[in-house]
Amino acid sequence: MFYVFAILILIGTGLLCLPQANNGTGFTPFMDAFFTSTSAITVTGLTVQNTPTYWSGFGKIVILLLMFIGGLGIMTTAAFLLVLIGQRVSLFQRQLVKESLGILPTNELGGMVTLVIRIVAIAVFVQVIGSMVYFVRLLTEMDIKNAIPHAVFMAISSFNNAGFTAFSSGSSISFYQKDVTMITTTVILILIGAVSVWVVADILAFRNKVFLYSLNSKLVLSGTLILTIVGALIFFAFEYSNPSTMSTLSVLDKIMVSVFESVSGRTAGLTTVDYGNTEQHTNFLMIGLMFIGGASGSVAGGIKINTFAVICIGIFSTLQGRTRTSIFGREIASLIVKRAMVIGALATAIVFIFSFILTAIESQFDFIDLLFEIISAFGTVGLSTGLTSELSRWGQLILIIAMFIGRVGPLGLGLAMTQSSRIENYRYTKERVTIG
């Protein structure tokens, strides 16, 4: 998985380096192409060049394809291509697809190929519908020739939580800050991509019978709802009177923007405000949301809502003095709680190390802004205070590594712990250790 991601990044870099990929007269600087390719395949959205003006039509197509493959998943894409050309998908490849998708209920691999085809079909279907909605809306302000590529690009970027935009009218989608159709469509696509196919399957299968949902779906949906509401309320309160973001908007528009930023700011990176002008405490809020991210098995990054929920439930159970971790009438295996704690602790350590290095390299910038960029890269979100393009090449390289680890690290760590788990035949004598 690591190798495939790396190879795709290098292929994308090579294509973006070509003169045909930019609107200039020569080759794209390697670092700019490398950064953009990594950002696209990891569906992050951080940029060092202005996407609408710098990249040509060919360059935008390369970025679009990288976003699509990165969001769909390397293993899923590979398996689908093998089926498409008539090649057999081996048991090992099916196991990789199963684990990369976060399939938990069953160990059977027989229907994996059919499942992969369905996943690709559903992903394409949702993005086509999104493209059609965007297309109808954009026809009111541009001709068909421009509306089609913008609609497709926007739908793929939104569904895959990629954060790239091709609009030349402003920063991200700030031009559509008060546009109900654009904002609503984008929120729906982001949420579908960020909650994972398994949660969507539960919703479609059982609809309003919530008690039949799996524990995983309940954790994702309740966590998403809580984080969205809390994030929106805090954003609304912090930015209500900020003249650079929302002070001139009506109350209803402020509510819509707050909900959008709470949803998109946690996973997608599309934004209607400039985070270079937001309050410092607002940015600190977004740092927390970006670190959590979306659901396991989804296109989103971060440590994942599932992981965060299990950690919180485990902590709460421990504070209550309970020896078992449970919620919604179901017990969570202690091994899962331990793995969640490990992922959370390692992610925190990685962010600390990267922040320390970036602060040492880019000491001229404020720490909160540097931390914002690191968390955005590690969480593969794509929000920026405007520093990304101003960083030195070494600083940008740190962000590239953070994006790569943020995309494959949590998944790779989870797979490694799953594959290396074993039952020990002996236990040591217990001894108490003083803590606290």
Order of helices and strands: HHHHHHHHHHHHHHEEHHH
Oligomeric organization of the protein chains? single chain
Adjacency order of strands in the biggest sheet: 1-2
Radius of gyration: 22 Å
Count of folded domains: 1
The total count of strands amounts to 2
Q: Which percent bin holds the helix content?
A: 55-70%
Helices, by number, come to: 17
From the spread of the alpha carbons, the general shape counts as globular
Runs in which pLDDT lies below 50 for 5 or more consecutive residues are: 104-109
Structural class: mainly alpha
Beta-strand portion reads under 5%
Q: State the major sheet.
A: 2 strands, antiparallel
Query: What is the terminal-to-terminal distance?
Result: 40 Å
Features:
globular, 436 residues, 63% helix, single chain, 1% strand, 2 strands, two-stranded antiparallel sheet, mainly alpha
Give an overview in words.
The protein has 436 residues and is mostly helical. The protein has one domain (2-415). The chain has helices spanning 2-17, 30-41, 51-54, 57-72, 74-84, 91-100, 112-138, 144-159, 180-194, 197-206, 215-239, 251-267, 280-292, 305-319, 334-361, 367-378, 393-420; strands spanning 325-327, 330-332. It has a two-stranded antiparallel ribbon with strand order 1-2. Mean pLDDT is 85; it is low at 104-109.
Compose a concise summary of this entry.
With 436 residues, this protein is mostly helical.
List the helices and strands and how they pair.
Elements: H1 2-17, H2 30-41, H3 51-54, H4 57-72, H5 74-84, H6 91-100, H7 112-138, H8 144-159, H9 180-194, H10 197-206, H11 215-239, H12 251-267, H13 280-292, H14 305-319, E1 325-327, E2 330-332, H15 334-361, H16 367-378, H17 393-420
